Amino acid sequence: MDNILVIGAAGQIGSDLVVGLRKIYGSSNVFATDIKPAPQDIMEGGPFQILDVMDDKQLIHFIIRHKINQIYLLAAVLSGNAEKLPVQAWEINMKSLLNVLEIAKMVEDVKKVFWPSSIAVFGPTTPRLHTPQLTIMEPITVYGISKLAGERWCDYYFNKFGVDVRSIRYPGLISYKTEAGGGTTDYSVEIFYEAIRKKQYNCFLSENTALPMLYMPDAIRATIDLMEAPREKLSLNSAYNLGGFSVTPKRVYEEIRTHIPEFKIEYNPDFRQAIADSWPQSIDDSVAKKDWGCYYEYDLEKMSTEMLREIGRKLGHFDSAQ
Ligand code: AKB
Q1: Cα distance between residue 233 and residue 200, in whole Å
Q2: What is the CATH code for 174-212+244-281+298-315?
Q3: Ligand 1: does its nearest atom lie under 6 Å from the Cβ of 78?
Q4: pLDDT averaged over consecutive 10-residue blocks of the chain (322 residues)?
Q5: DSSP string, 251-288
Q6: Residue ranges of the domains in the chain?
Q7: Which residue from 214, 91, 204, 74 is spatially nearest to 145, judged by alpha carbons?
Q8: Is residue 120 lining ligand 1, measured as CB closer than 6 Å?
Q9: Nearest C-alpha to atom 6 of ligand 1 is from which residue?
Q10: pTM above 0.85, yes or no
Q11: Reported CATH class of domain 4-170+223-241
């Protein structure tokens, strides 16, 4: 069985991905790392270590010592937070990727790398409905610029050095395990927590802001399916569009109210509204479906029921955990 390194295991994707990978590869073969402690099940369910992906010497020693064969690099500064510290966010998002790509080039045992791109690579000049796989990409955020540059670096290392690096342009990701991490789409996570905690939510996007979203179980399965796909089936050397379902804050609010009738919302758009307005409203993910059979099991209704049940359990509000 391959040995797998997950960098950013404490984050929104990482904390669910580690669990999925350990079910496939065995707990002792999936090394979870981050610069901060991860959720308890991650730290106690298999190898966990504090590791800084910015320290290339520490990173290469870890990879060689544990005979790592696959690397999932999930550490990044998300869109909202990146606007507050642009240069630092650029340095973190780019140096972390280049450290991993360089090591994958040098260390023969490393067979595959996964790195997440995002709908943030698109900008205001991109067609916003059913956004194509190949289209105009003029991102207006630091995060989007770093993801666009990262896609080009992945393509370069594949073509120049044969590094098998694979990537997905994630839409907004919704999960209950970790709370929001500074993204523009994170209203879609906060709203569920606040509906249960306070039965009211102050939304930082306007009510009709449509964005593509994906429930985490669908995102994790798509990620692992892409990494397990035979390379010859993949027509892209950079990042695949992934769409999920398109939804607005108003639609999410209405769905939550079918479970919590007294839930109230107000809309006070902040700086993230301009970011959301530059992103697609829906995504064409036909290339992913054709190349590696990507599919989804969750829609807004099914996801909302599960989110409220699991967050209710997590917060001890069992009336919501119906
Ligand atoms: C963000 O909102 O910054 C991220 C993303 C869409 O990549 N969730």
Answers
A1: 47
A2: 3.90.25.10
A3: yes
A4: 97 97 97 97 97 97 98 96 97 98 98 98 98 98 98 98 98 94 95 98 98 98 98 95 97 98 98 98 98 96 98 83 48
A5: HHHHHHHTT-TT-EEEE---THHHHHHTS-SSB--HHH
A6: 4-170+223-241, 174-212+244-281+298-315
A7: 91
A8: yes
A9: 172
A10: yes
A11: alpha beta
